[in-house]
Amino acid sequence: MRLPTVEDVARTARVSRQTVSNVINTPARVKPATLLRVQAAIRELDYRPNQSARRLRQQKSATIGIRLDPQLNGISGAVLDRFLHSLTEQATERGLRVLLFTAATPTEEIDQIRALRDGADVDAFVLTATFDHDPRPEWLIEQKIPFVTFGRPWGIDDLNDPQHRWVDVDGRRGVYAATLSLLDAGAERVAWIGWPPPTATGDDRRSGWEDAMRERLGLGDAELASLCTEVVDDVAEATNAVANVLAGAVLPDGMVCASDTLALGALIAASTAGRRDIPIIGFDDTPVAAALGISSVEQRLDQVAAGALALLLGPVGDSVVASGALDVAHRLIEPALVLRRPQDLPMFNPSRIDGTAAADKH
Amino acid sequence: MRLPTVEDVARTARVSRQTVSNVINTPARVKPATLLRVQAAIRELDYRPNQSARRLRQQKSATIGIRLDPQLNGISGAVLDRFLHSLTEQATERGLRVLLFTAATPTEEIDQIRALRDGADVDAFVLTATFDHDPRPEWLIEQKIPFVTFGRPWGIDDLNDPQHRWVDVDGRRGVYAATLSLLDAGAERVAWIGWPPPTATGDDRRSGWEDAMRERLGLGDAELASLCTEVVDDVAEATNAVANVLAGAVLPDGMVCASDTLALGALIAASTAGRRDIPIIGFDDTPVAAALGISSVEQRLDQVAAGALALLLGPVGDSVVASGALDVAHRLIEPALVLRRPQDLPMFNPSRIDGTAAADKH
Questions:
Q1: Which neighbouring-strand residues pair with B358?
Q2: Which CATH number fits domain A171-299+336-361: 1.20.120.450, 3.90.1150.10, 3.40.50.2300, 3.90.550.10?
Q3: Is the minimum CB–CB distance between A78 and chain B shorter than 8 Å?
Q4: Predicted TM-score of the model (pTM)
Q5: Phi–psi pair at A247, nearest 5 degrees
Q6: Which residues in chain A touch residue B94, judged by CB atoms under 8 angstroms apart?
Q7: In b/e form, how buried is each residue of A16-26, taking b as 16+ CB within 10 angstroms?
Q8: ipTM of the assembly?
Q9: How far apart are CA B303 and CA B334, in angstroms?
Q10: Is A265 helix (H, G, I), strand (E, B) or coil?
Q11: What pLDDT digit, counting tens, does each position of B45-80 carry?
Q12: Which residues of A are less than 8 Å from B1 in CB distance?
């Protein structure tokens, strides 16, 4: 069974979709004969006008749809799960429901969204994992379907299009703060352990490290390149890559990593090389980082979820911390630096700088 | 706005809920005057009878509700997330939808289920985290709401009540297989690293280790107790506890753990003590175990999801592997042993038995 759509009514009454919409919203403007024919079709098909807008406004019984991707492996794979927990909890508090669906491709996701919209089952959508030339936002804007994306519209010019509401985490700023924290404590050769470019989020995070190193130490491209290691997001691969770095000519006195997976590899390599004294900061603040005591940059997914709902529904006790100068349709969330190991903390570092931390080598 | 319920119709028409149900399902049995009054109330309230049963039978547009708990920290917290991924993927393949809600207590969950049932929004429920004297199944059975639990009805006599459909993972059998694997390879002092009792799943897992040790080695209670360590599910606590074990008089030649969190603690303690040669097997096969190369017992959550849907909807290419002799309403899924480190594998162990593995100590 499929619920009747506005297209079904239009076909049955032999009018355009717009006319059906007029009958529902501004019946006084419709010719009486047409009005009667469309109303008859509405009754015949038992069509119910999409109540999304009203339900969303009232924030009652409205349903938010979100795609759940296949289980990602690895340590950072759980970030979107944690976002889903925050979103569901906050949506429930606001009287909303969360409906899950799956889709293998963006095209299939669009088909699913259309079906859920036509069935009047879902009133608004939260999209995740935005990417370069993502076809979904444009389609949703055309269709006038309320949505918000977790993720900036990468690869387009107008980040501030008010029709594309988005929330994102300021990865650049998080890595910038992590790098500054190490530089403030006296480090001078802070290495970047990142993913091979191009990746939208990876390149954004790296730019935070670059900016900090350029601003504070005046480093040029060649010097930055010599402090930069690119490796896929895998513990064993990262361990090998960082082992090579630690066996090289220029020994880093700090490491900032694009993910906790890379940070764990760096920690294993540093431990094996007897260099546990080198500070390491990961990204995502995963349960693994917490369990192993690895310092990390926290995405503050509760703030992301609050921001997404606020952009869809309007603020309710809205206390989102935006780090950029943003308008009402966009939120760039400032991440939090979570420092756990003594050697990652600013107060520990004087002993490291004057060389006494060599005692920590074994 | 709240959708009208059968209770609203009954109140408006001044009849019982049962009479409303009769009007909808067997109108010929209802007195004409009552029929007209109830039908008028149905029209007035715009009430739509619950189409759940039909939708479920047709497996089209039906919606399955599941509670999403607050984010659990720790390494094993993601097990229910991974189940949700499998469930959503398989439900979508069968044309079903998955709706999330949250609830702080079982009573609140029951309230949520009632509201979702009354609104005709959800057709069946999947319950997780069953516990001793869980009030939810009994209530759902009374209300004739279709449901299946991921988790046995712990603490009651009749595990085979056909009205309580459940799927569970045979933790006892998984740990039994893990222990036998180590004993087969020649180990004789396989330690159990588990949680303080009583915990339903923890005690069940421990019984697998006990059974294997009693059957193979004829150990008594005192000997088992001397090989058993109880510690909360925390890496640092487990590291300390296992460090004490390794510093003790009776050195284990294998460790089977109630979780990957405990296994990671055991691995860190063994590494620190220079005893990386001791085999270690965890439980859950988390992404952390995979990333760090720790052997583990896999819950096979895709099989759990398939079993849950099969019990709710009937089998569709049903290939669930049940390890117990179970009827059509219950599925006990046999876990899989995932061995990763050479020292955990049976073929590695001859060298360990004859003592040459001591070369692996440093």
A1: none
A2: 3.40.50.2300
A3: yes
A4: 0.76
A5: -90, 0
A6: none
A7: eeebbbbbbee
A8: 0.73
A9: 9
A10: helix
A11: 877 654 444 455 444 568 899 999 776 666 766 788
A12: 54-55, 58, 60-61
